[in-house]
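User: Hey, my collaborator sent me this sequence without any context and asked if I could get a structure. I don't really work with proteins. Can you help?
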Amino acid sequence: QVQLVESGGGLVQTGGSLTLSCVASGSIERIVAMGWYRQAPGKQRELVASITSSATTNYADFVKGRFTIFRENAKNTVYLQMNSLKPEDTADYYCYAALGYGLGYWGQGTQVTVSS
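Assistant: No problem. I've predicted the 3D structure and written it out in structure-token form, which is a compact way to encode the shape of the chain:
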């Protein structure tokens, strides 16, 4: 199993920045990629950004140029640096660890609120 613990959410004004952290533990050697998803009230969960074990990154169009996903292997941590935040970025943000073959684990989520 893999356990994921997110942190770093909070309230920020439009144009502000936040950095989310996701610490992985357990069978981390099985992780092939990690990602950040978000879910706003009344909306479906959507991919924000992902990073593979070889550090290949992928971003949703709505965050390109504003968000950066990166990892610190020594700390088993993946980060999501969020700049130029907009009210529409308000959501619960979830960390996901993919193990391949359709298997994966979710964190408990961290709330991000961007005030206008």
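In plain terms: DSSP finds no helices and eleven strands in the chain. You can pass these tokens on to your collaborator as they are.
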